[in-house]
Amino acid sequence: MATNKVLAYVESRKNLTGSALGVAGLGLTFAGVAGPYWPVVVVGLYGAGALIAPPERPPLPDFPDPSAQLDELRADFGTLREYLDGIDLPPAAAGRLAELTELLTALLDPGWVSEVLARDPEGVHALSRAVRQDVPEAVDTFVRTRWWTRLTPGTEPPERHLERQLTLLQDELGTVAAALRDAEARRQESHTRYLEDRSS
Q: pTM above the 0.85 mark?
C-alpha cells in the first residue's frame, strides 16, 4: 500500500513539476547564479513547482455505455419472458400482455432501433423500469390477488386492474417508440435541408 502511494507520488504532476524546476535550479547552480546557497535554491524551486502544479484529477467512474445497458436489459427481458410463460392469465389480460411484450421485443431487438434507443437515456430508463419492475410487479400482484379473490367472491376481479396496468404500460412505451420515430424523422428532415442548402 505504501509502495503504491510512493509510486503514485513519483508519477504525480506535483513531483514532475517540482523536479523540472529543481533541475532548473541545478542549471542555475552550474551557471554560477545560485552560489553557495544552491541547495536552498534547488529545494525551494522544487517546493515551488510542487505547490503550483495543478492537483491530480481523479479518474471518472467507469459506467457501462448505453449499448452494454441494453445488452443487460435484453438478458433481463429474456428472464421476464420465461417467468411470464409460466403464468396462466385470462384471455383479455393475456392479449394485452402479448401486445406489450411484442412492443418490448421490437424496441430491444438488436440493430438500428436499439442504436437509436441507446441515444435516449429516458427511453432506456422507461424500458428498464417496465422490464425489471412494472410488468413483473403487475403480474405477480394479479396472481396473489386472484388467490385471495377466490376466498372472497363478489369483489372486483383482479384482471381488470391487470388489464388497466398493462394498457398504461403499453401507452407509456408507445410514447417512447413515438419519440424515437420523431427523432429519426427530424434527422431525415435535417439531412434534406442540408442537401437543399448545399445544392442552392
A: no
Task: Find, among 69, 63, 84, the residue nearest to 118 by Cα.
Answer: 69
Is residue 49 within 8 Å of residue 17, measured between CB atoms?
yes
Q: Residue 39 corresponds to which amino acid?
A: P
Q: Which helix or strand (DSSP H or E) is residue 167 part of? A: helix 158-199
Q: 38, exposed or middle or buried, with CB in 10 Å at 0-12, 13-18, 19+?
A: middle
Q: For the chain, which residues make up each domain, given as ranges?
A: 2-52, 66-199
pLDDT in tens, 34-83: 677 777 777 887 888 777 777 777 777 776 676 778 889 999 999 999 99
Identity of the residue numbered 165? Q
DSSP 36: G
Q: How far apart are CA 94 and CA 129, in angstroms?
A: 20
